[in-house]
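Below is a filled-in request sheet from our internal design queue. Each sheet records the structural input a requester submitted and the sequence that came back. We keep these sheets so that new team members can see what a complete request looks like end to end.

REQUESTER: design group, bay 2
PRIORITY: normal
MODE: inverse folding
CHAIN LENGTH: 131
BACKBONE (tokenized):
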């Protein structure tokens, strides 16, 4: 195989392999949970207990997204990309780093403008009522 074609072919295969790997990983991660619930449900006669069991295994987060935390992470990823471009890969990565960094700053600002936890909302309402 020609040396010049290996990198593009690997790049195209990566776009296929990564989603398939994630699907496979998530499927097998949940497979054990499903089998456990099935085995336990065979021995339970009370539908209320079965519902409680299903609620225990449900992993949805009930809390809202913390934009400030995500913004800080995005900001530092942008800084890392910028410095990678500055020291090694060139101006394209510097510009990309700036873009990602500014997205992070915007996300941090959004986190402060739109409070998302119950305590923050209560504090914001109380502060507004004082005015």
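RETURNED SEQUENCE:
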């Amino acid at each position: 195989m020609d040396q010049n074609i290996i990198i593009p072919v690997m790049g195209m295969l990566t776009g296929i392999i990564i989603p398939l790997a994630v699907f496979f990983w998530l499927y097998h991660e949940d497979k054990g949970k499903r089998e456990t619930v099935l085995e336990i449900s065979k021995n339970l006669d009370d539908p209320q207990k079965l519902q409680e069991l299903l609620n225990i295994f449900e992993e949805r987060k009930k809390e809202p997204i913390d934009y400030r935390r995500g913004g800080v992470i995005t900001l530092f990823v942008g800084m890392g990309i910028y410095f990678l471009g500055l020291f090694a890969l060139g101006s394209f990565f510097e510009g990309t780093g700036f873009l990602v960094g500014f997205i992070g700053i915007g996300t941090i600002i959004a986190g402060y403008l739109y409070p998302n936890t119950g305590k923050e909302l209560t504090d914001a309402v109380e502060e507004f009522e004082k005015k």
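SHEET NOTES:
- The chain is about 85% helix and 0% strand.
- The two ends are 73 Å apart (CA to CA).
FILED BY: M.R.
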